[in-house]
Amino acid sequence: MNINYLETFLDVMETRNFNRSAERINVTQSTVSARIRALEEAVRSPLFHRGRFGAEPTAAGFKFLPHATRLRQIWNQARQELALPEGLAASVRLATQPSLRDAFVRDWLAAMRDNHPNIAVYIEADYSPSVLQQLSDGTLDIGVIYIPRALPGLLVENLFTERYLMIGAGPAALSDVTADDYVFIDWSPHFKNRHLELLPHLQATAVSVGLGSMAVDHILERGGCGYFPQRTAQMLVERHGCRIIEEAPVIEQPVYVVVGDQIRETGPVRTALDELYRIAERLG
């Protein structure tokens, strides 16, 4: 079976429209139609009802969806493992929120290299929607994210709870913090909502950033304060003389691990998950 047929089928299942899928995968509408027809002949069943307003999956189309998703995952995994350097037996691909990369995922990478040197590791930093899409596509094995979403074929589990502390170089207590010296860091929608509930007077500030590293540089160079993950906050206190701001509430953010239900118990993925949970347990 041509892998392009599966890719086209999965895209049409999402768009419900041959023309839209043709635009998305950069082929003609007739090519999409031909691929779907060829796939229907191969599985000996119609997969879509064609109509003036789009393409609706048949019962067979819905039944075939998890199989097509798994076949694509197997294909992508096979391509990755066949390209492995000599001495490596398998690979794991993980994506994480950028703010989790420096500490939590760094510890996981060290554990994987120390304890499982025959498993190749690929890591990227991205945001929840993109990570979920790549997990659905089978181009990633594991996602560590803030905002999960129920998608066919994916399992979501709570990993740990991130704790954000307000630290700074300047103000000692929350009552001393003003909008002029406070740096708002948009860690996630959940963080932003909790911040608004707990600290409405610090929502409109002179400086707002989307990356924690930019806030660190700003505070160390010019003073001020902001919220950081507990591990980062402790590092700034110990190495740079910052202080935890008294009376400032702790803001908590759930962190989730997402993995394909068909690959969760496979050797390298199970190993990678076990190491993630061991590190998360230490944080908890």
UniProtKB/TrEMBL annotation:
Keyword Protease: no
Entry-linked CDD domains: PBP2_LTTR_substrate (cd05466)
UniProt KW Zinc keyword: no
Domain HTH lysR-type: 1-58
UniProt keywords, alphabetically: DNA-binding, Transcription, Transcription regulation
A molecular-function term among this protein's GO annotations: DNA-binding transcription factor activity
InterPro entries for this protein: LysR_HTH_N, LysR_subst-bd, WH-like_DNA-bd_sf, WH_DNA-bd_sf
Gene3D superfamilies: Periplasmic binding protein-like II (3.40.190.10), Winged helix-like DNA-binding domain superfamily/Winged helix DNA-binding domain (1.10.10.10)
Family per record: Belongs to the LysR transcriptional regulatory family.
Protein name, UniProt field: DNA-binding transcriptional LysR family regulator
Species the sequence originates in: Aestuariispira insulae
